[in-house]
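Much of what follows relies on a compact textual record of a protein's fold. A complete example follows; check for yourself that the lines match position by position.
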Amino acid sequence: MSTYETSKLLGQVLSTECPSREILEHLANKWSILVLRCLSDGVHRFSELKQRIEGVSEKMLAQTLKMLEQDGFIL
């Protein structure tokens, strides 16, 4: 897909070709929502998040934090 075609699709979330769909999928992830909820209270260490979010594995938490950081939602 060319840059022109991609830029035409930006913001067109109803289109299956919209590049923002991937980020939307990341945000709609169960763990992402729970992590963002915890971080809305302030900064937390990895171990604090692991303790607060019942049922999340270390691997899943690490992947979720990395994905949210790559998408620009957390630092």
About this structure: Helices lie at 3-9, 20-27, 30-39, 46-52, 58-70. The chain is about 60% helix and 0% strand. The CA atoms of residues 19 and 30 lie 21 Å apart. The radius of gyration is 15 Å.
